[in-house]
Prior knowledge:
The chain has helices spanning 4-16, 18-40, 65-93, 98-109, 114-120, 126-140. The relative contact order is 0.14. The mean pLDDT is 88. It has 141 residues and is an all-alpha fold.
Amino acid sequence: MLTVKDKVEQFKRDCKSNDYYTKAIMDLNERIEEYDVILTGISSPTGNTGPKCENARNPYASIKLEPMLKQEALIKERDEYIRRINEVNAKLMKIVDPVDRQMVIDTLILKQHYSIVLSRYRYNDYSALRKHINSVIKKIV
């Protein structure tokens, strides 16, 4: 059984993973484009003067089916990362106070140093800031 504390900690982990998800989406987009090139094919500019080796891969694999299946798997993985980012953003939009929302974004998503966040939001102690952030997250989770 999940407690409220577990849900708060999971939301914090999701916020901290937001940067990883963004980088993974960019990487997956590049790999999907590579499979687009493989599926459309590249023709040699010199004509038919020998074997083509631009798209060298397993000669016994299906020419179109294998890259299409791999591309579909990459698209599903990318969509999963996008869904996770959207879930975090949707929960962040539930925070009514814009100062509290920005505080959560600065500490968890942007990962700013605690001294900068403490001075910006006029807190004396990092533990007080953490407690306030936890109370804000409890309201939305």
